[in-house]
Amino acid sequence: MLLAALFLIAGVLTLAFFLSVSDNLIQIEAQKQGIDTRKKNLSVFPSLGNLFGKPAPEFADKSKFHNLKQGHDLKLVGSASGTPVKANVSRYALKPTDFRGIAPIPKMEVAVGDEVLAGQPVFYDKLSPEIKYVAPVSGEVVELRRGAKRAVSHIVILADKEQKHKQHDILNVDTASKQDIINYLQAAGAWNLLNQRPFDIIADPTVTPDNIFISTFSTAPLAPDNSALLDGRTADLQEAIDTLSRLTSGKVYLGLDGRGNSPHPTLSKVTGAEKHYFNGKHPAGNVGVQIHHTAPIKNNSAVWTLTLEGALTLGRLMNAGIYDSSKIVALTGAQFDSPQLVKTYAGASIAELTKGNIKAEGTTRLIQGDVLSGKVLGEDDFLSQGENQITSIKEGDQHELFGWLLPIKPRPSISKTMPGFLMPNHQYEANTNTHGEKRAFVVTGQYEKMLPMDIFPQHLMKAIMAGDIERMEGLGINELSEEDIALAEFSCTSKMPLQSILRDGLDMMREQG
């Protein structure tokens, strides 16, 4: 009896060994043939996701539905919803520092006192003079604010009450050549809406991207719903997709929200783009995560991305011949008396957007974007291009004696030593307190639980800090941007500035060519 059991165990182990070897050989051969095994299961073993994962909703193509397991939703007080209201803003600014990849000192085309039209060029990069950067609104240039080395950091415009736009001839995308489209977008100021990965820089017009990606939703903390932005904009989004399709050798991909509700009618109606649905916690809405699960960036190749808002701006230009920078901004967070959606234009004055809406008690920190990857705003700053959210939270300027040992007040955390895990739907009123200082950089496995990508982020961070270029590339640095690693930074026991480390690595890779 014992001998039979031993033979049975040996047989099972032998079968498992041969199946494992066969599975590895299949995966190796698939990679040689260029087959993406993330999209097609060629394994000997069935996918656990197929066996136990959430089924695709009725409105989603099952073959293009991605059920992501890793991540974390940071739920905070102060979400903005309802009908957008018109903001009372008179000053707007274009900030050269918003555009990564251009020379630090721009060449100005306007001076203080000049009158400009919305969409009129105001500066260009001396390394790429054909790419124009245009005024978000019409009005008078009232200030050229300067930063380090006297470089212009803000071109401030006092807006007209009635907006006037620079009118361009309407280009027929169907008959125009690819170069004609590129020239048109560059001259009209829409080229800087396109972002290139790796490195997250202004798209290089001499490069033909493998694919172009648009994420139509965000899972970041307090991120606004895009429904109000999409209402009545089907023609603009369709024109943007048709235009972008002429610029790539591959496809235009739309990343759609697969977490429950059916997509907005505008997203359902548009054609010419391959639609993929993503279900999961943050960062499922990040375009970098979506790229990873649809058509990953290959070595020595590039892809382009743009925001949904950028796509609508581009489509409006192609349809009407005007650069329209109008946007809907979400004022979110516990420090706003009235979190709300407001209609304004790119570059709006933060002081005017938030005037009379910030709570008096406590010191408030205003953040452009979300609390994980946003940037701190100054008292007299302006909204950056591409941003559609301002978050307000309290400054964590009060010490908590043994706060880490006595977790009395609920606070956002991934640790189950905090009582928050018992209240999965609780909305927290967070502050900026980090509850500790930097510590030894130890391997914890926390990062992998936060990032739904086949990447080892902790090993990558150490390779960056060591300056190991070859290892950085092998560990997938070209697939990442700061927003992708932001949640891992939030969860980091060692309190490491991962986003800053990643940017250092990307800059290092870019310098190496």
Give a concise summary.
This protein has 513 residues and is α/β, with parallel strands linked by helices. The protein has helices spanning 2-32, 48-52, 178-188, 227-230, 234-245, 265-269, 287-294, 308-320, 350-354, 446-450, 457-466, 469-474, 482-491, 498-511, and strands spanning 65-67, 85-86, 91-94, 107-108, 115-116, 121-125, 128-134, 139-146, 152-159, 195-197, 201-202, 212-215, 252-257, 274-279, 303-305, 326-332, 340-345, 364-368, 375-376, 389-394.
Task: List its traits.
513 residues; alpha/beta; OB fold (Dihydrolipoamide Acetyltransferase, E2P); Rossmann fold; seven-stranded mixed sheet; six-stranded mixed sheet; 14 helices; 20 strands
If you consult CATH, what is the topology of one domain? Rossmann fold
Question: What is the number of beta strands?
Answer: 20
Biggest sheet character: 7 strands, mixed
Helix percent band: 25-40%
Shape: globular
Structural class: alpha/beta
With helices defined by DSSP (H or I, 4 residues minimum), what is the helix count? Answer: 14
**How far apart are the first and last residues' alpha carbons, in Å?**
67 Å
Radius of gyration equals: 25 Å
Walkthrough of the structure:
The strands form four sheets. A seven-stranded mixed beta sheet has the order 1-14-13-12-15-10-11. It has a six-stranded mixed beta sheet with strand order 2-17-16-20-18-19, with no helix packed on it. A four-stranded antiparallel beta sheet has the order 3-9-8-5, with no helix packed on it. The chain contains 14 helices and 20 strands. The protein has helices at 2-32, 48-52, 178-188, 227-230, 234-245, 265-269, 287-294, 308-320, 350-354, 446-450, 457-466, 469-474, 482-491, 498-511, and strands at 65-67, 85-86, 91-94, 107-108, 115-116, 121-125, 128-134, 139-146, 152-159, 195-197, 201-202, 212-215, 252-257, 274-279, 303-305, 326-332, 340-345, 364-368, 375-376, 389-394. 27% of the residues lie in helices and 18% in strands. Helix 13 (482-491) packs antiparallel against helix 14.
